[in-house]
Each structure stands twice: as structure tokens, then as C-alpha cells.
Amino acid sequence: MSGFLAQARGRAANAARFLLLAASAVCTAGAAGAAAPLRLCADPANLPFSSEQSGTPGLYLEIGQRIAQALGRELQPVWSLSYWGKRNLRTTLLAGQCDLAIGLPADAGFMGPRLVLSKPILEMGYALVTPNDHAVLRLDDLKGMRVAVQFASPPQSLLATRGDITTVTVMSAEEGMQRLASGAADAAILWGPVAGYVNHAAQHDRWRVVPLDGPGMRWEAAIGFSRRELALRDAVAGVLDRVRAEMPAMAARYGLPGGPPITLADAGPVPSLALVADDTATEIKEGREIFNGTCAHCHGPDAVQSERRINLRLLQHRYGDDMEQVFFTTVTHGRPAKGMPNWSGVFSHEDFIKIFAFLKSVQTGD
Ligand code: HEC
Question: How far is the centre of ligand 1, averaged over its atoms, from the C-alpha of 72 (Å)?
Fold first, then answer.
């Protein structure tokens, strides 16, 4: 919860736009018939989460759009600035100005009984940002480095006791990313979604952005409704699993850090990143599950795809011995101009090995 508010506070103010109602819906759900539009409370300038720019609507708007689609309704954003936090929710969601708000802390005590929540839909938190070629697994790996941290954040406390790590205090994750880009810091521990988004959208994925675990570092977010809207909450619950399956791909488009979080403990065992594959069948099965959950959306279920250009059963045919290298390069860098997302940060190296094992098992000759 503190993180939610810190995130809200950290942004530039523009009170003039407070409670500006969208004149028209940006997203349509096809033949929605006479169903009333689904009104999403959203911030007009809070990327990667939401934005009134139609080219980059943000993760929450995309989630809202999928939910609306699944319910056969049209999505209508109702804009207001989320950095007002609870006060904003009181005058929008709880006042009946809009029907749902995405990304609230999944904490029943957040605003008392007037607010009801969905199941948690995503996890967010702080992330470690390091140069792409510099893997960090524990605090000792940051020795001697200048590390940017946000003022009054849990990462600042984490580093406070370390005399051998120089902290560079910044006021926001954006500022932390600027310090990195300008060379004023060597690494950073910042609010993950913004760090990942800036890295992806403005800094050419120059940095490795890895989610962190540990006290105060992560929390879960949910969808909030007014207590008077229990029926809507239940309807949304019924379509949430379907929407959730698409979320990794949506999150990847905005560079959100994904994959397993690491704990920056002082010492202790270093987790191995290499997968010791002793059970190929399990690996293929798990790889197939990941593939069908995320990649099948474009590449076809079980990689059956009639469009040759994106038929991944032809990798062997197309690349021969280079197949493995092409696979790993493509999934970790994407081909953004051609519509293939970058999956680094979304899946672990282990996941990629599994997906590759699955794809290897379904190669065909022509
Ligand atoms: C949003 C759609 C989309 C999703 C989701 C997607 N891809 Fe792709 N992918 C593409 C497109 C489009 C291309 C073709 C790019 C090109 O023309 O070079 C591609 C190309 C590739 C290639 C290279 C194919 C070749 O022959 O050069 C690989 C490998 C690949 N994708 C793997 C994956 C994996 C693994 C996943 C899931 C983690 C995935 N893709 C998810 C759209 C997608």
C-alpha cells in the first residue's frame, strides 16, 4: 500500500485535468448491443499503466479492454489523476463516476468495506536495474558501485547499512533511469514498472530489470469496485482467468519486469540460473504450457500456424544449426518493428529453455 501511494505521489502534478471525463470511448468492443459501457477509472498520464494517448493506452487500459470485450460491453475510460490516491477513489469509483479501477493494492483494509476487490491480478514492486552484462544475485555483487534508490523507499533502507555501496538518492524511478543513462549511477533499485517501461520505451532495453523479493519490495494488485457493484465484481471474476492468460504479452509490450523475483540477501546460496535438464519429457510439457499460454496467441496453439512467416515448426528447416541461436536472440530481444515482442524480463532463462525444448520437439521438414 505504501508503494502504491509512493508511486502515485512520485509523479508530476497536473491538477487541471483532474476528473476530466472522456468525451468518447477510445476502445470499442465490437457489437456490444445495448449494454451500458464499462467505465474504467484511469489516469490520463500514468504510463506504463494508463494513458489517454491511443497509441500507448497502457497496461490497465488494455486489461480493461479485454474485460469489457469478454463481457460484451464497450470500454469507456473516465480520466482522473491517480496520485490523489484514496481521495481520488472516493470522488470517482466510490461516488459512482466509474465502475472499476485496476491496480489497487490487494489489501482488504485499503479503503474499508466500501471498496470490494477482485482476486489479485498482478504483482508489482521494486526492481534491480543493472547493465545487461552485469548479473547481480546478492548485495555483495553491488560492492563498489553507485546505486540509485528512491528517497524513502524500502531499497534505500536496504542499502543504508552498507558502507561499501554508494547510494545515489533520486525522487522518482524516471530520475533514477536518467542517472543511469547519464552515467551518474552504475545500477539502481527502482519502482519496477516505471524502470522497465523507461528502459524499454526510451533506453533501447540497455538495462537488465529484475523484480526483487523481500520485505516491502513486492505486493499484489487487484481490481477495485464499489461495494454496490458486487454483481459486476462477480461477472469480472468469471472472465478474469481468460484475461490473465494474455497479461504477460501485454506487460511485455510495456517492458514491465517479469520472471522470477530475486532476493538480494546479504549472503547465502546463489541460485543457479542454468537448468539441469534431466527430464526432457517434463521440460517439453512445461514448455508447451508456457507456449500455449503466451505465444500461441500469435504463433498458433501447439505452434500450428498456416502463415509461414510465423510458423515456428519451420525453425529447423529455416535455420538449421543456427536454430537455437536465432530462437534465444529473438525471444530476448524481440523484433519490435515486426510485431514480435521482447520477452526478456517476462520469462526466465529456464522458461526459454523449456519453450525451446517444446519447439524442438515439433519441427517439421517443410
Ligand atoms: C503479438 C504476437 C506475438 C507473440 C505473442 C509472440 N510472437 Fe514470436 N513472432 C511474432 C512475429 C510477427 C514474428 C515474425 C517476425 C519477423 O517477421 O521477423 C515472430 C517471430 C518469432 C520467432 C522467429 C521466427 C523465425 O522464423 O525467424 C521466434 C523464435 C518467436 N517468434 C518465438 C516466440 C515465442 C517463444 C513466443 C512466446 C514467448 C512468441 N514468439 C510470442 C509475433 C509474436
Answer: 29
